[in-house]
From TrEMBL, chain A:
Residues 110-242 form the Anti-sigma K factor RskA C-terminal domain. Residues 71-101 are annotated as: Disordered. This is Anti-sigma-W factor RsiW. Keywords: Cell membrane, Membrane, Transmembrane, Transmembrane helix. Coiled coil: none annotated. Residues 10-36 form the Putative zinc-finger domain. Its main location: membrane.
From TrEMBL, chain B:
SUPFAM superfamilies: Sigma2 domain of RNA polymerase sigma factors (SSF88946), Sigma3 and sigma4 domains of RNA polymerase sigma factors (SSF88659). Keywords: Sigma factor, Transcription, Transcription regulation. It comes from Fictibacillus halophilus. InterPro entries: RNA_pol_sigma-70-like (IPR039425), RNA_pol_sigma-70_dom (IPR014284), RNA_pol_sigma70_r2 (IPR007627), RNA_pol_sigma70_r4_t2 (IPR013249), RNA_pol_sigma_r2 (IPR013325), RNA_pol_sigma_r3/r4-like (IPR013324), WH-like_DNA-bd_sf (IPR036388). Belongs to the sigma-70 factor family. ECF subfamily. Gene3D superfamilies: 1.10.1740.10, Winged helix-like DNA-binding domain superfamily/Winged helix DNA-binding domain (1.10.10.10). Residues 123-173 form the RNA polymerase sigma factor 70 region 4 type domain. CDD domains: Sigma70_r4 (cd06171). This is RNA polymerase sigma-70 factor (ECF subfamily). Residues 24-92 form the RNA polymerase sigma-70 region domain. The keyword Iron-sulfur does not apply. The lineage of its organism: Bacteria, Bacillati, Bacillota, Bacilli, Bacillales.
Amino acid sequence: MEPKTCGNLLDYYNGLLEGKEKDAFEKHLKQCDACQEEWAEWQDLTADLPYLSEEAQPPIGMKERILTNVTSSDSSFTRQETETVNKTDENPTNISPLSQRRPKPWLQGVLAAGLLLSLGTNAYLFNENNKNEQVIQEQINKTFKTVQLASEETESTGVASMVQENDTMNLVVQTNNLTQVKGTETYQVWLIEGDKPYRAGTFTPDENGNGAVVFPVKFEGEHKWDAVAISHEPTPNSKKPLGTIVMASNL
Amino acid sequence: MGRTSDYELYQKVQEENKEALEMLYDRYEKLLFSFSFKMLRQKELAEEAVQDVFMKLWRKKGLYSEDKGKFSSWLLTVTRNACIDLIRKQQKNEVEILEKDIDHERTESVEETVTWNEEREGLKKAVSSLTEEQQDIVEMFYFKGYSQSDIAERKNIPLGTVKGRIRLALKHLKKIYRERGDKYGTENLR
């Protein structure tokens, strides 16, 4: 029994030991019966505490983002193919290697592109209704720009990406939680240059308010797009936005 | 009645079964997110913590075995550690974690979701039987991940007594709460 080392147990429990001190404690823990007993005691004493958490609603789209990110291939991550007792999983580390791979907004853009243009590698398409899994393995085309779309007034969210496919620039739009359309109503996507909107395309979301569409961008002349917007239109024929802009973002 | 156990799902996840991963995700999303949000107070960070947990489940083999205890307890431990990693990272970046409002997503209740309202009420009652200082040190130690020396300094108590005080508070909590019956022998499903 080494009192000084044993005294580090709580700080180890809270991920406060680093480097040699941490390694030394882990080595000590394997050999010290008293610490092992105490470790088990702390695990037991704290087991109920997470259930003190007030119920919090996960953010919109969290499930889709996480499952997409988790299951998409990541060559920078080496799978642990053998059983491991890596303490970084059951004890905190100071910097989690996974936390450095934070969900990237552009992944959703790539996902949509993968779905619609057969782009991407191992893109996991999440479908709430039939939960199809599509694995697409083709060469990734170049994504020039991706922006998050969000609504100030509703829970609608989306991602828009400009993706080069061969000689064609495509606008890929993926949306979630759009309000259902009625009758002739549709959603229209607009590319905006200065104060002039260009109609990029029309779509109708599925029964869950989700949609993923791709529009080739083929306008004459050179353009420098300033923004992308989605409007809820009374008909599919609007030459300029007549309805409500539900989401927009600068490009 | 036909419900796949956590361990069975975990084993399928080890075989890279995406349906099993999704079932496990659906079962624990709200609990893990709520717990992470309590610790991190930022929805973006809480989401990152939950993602880190599922990354580990999906990409690392053999992390969990039944001799490590209940899967749910183990999963919550992994979640807490993911949160602590993020807290440390924030501290290194000298970014203060501020409490923010959270977006609410109106979701229909998922049939297989771990719920814990009744347990939370019981625990809150048990917590209310602790002194204010005991409540503070439990919060600092468990949910904020403070060191013993930080707790000693902030609560103005001798460093040598911190561990004992935390233990006493937690033992009292456990006694009061578990007298009502351990609710976690099986997960409660809505």
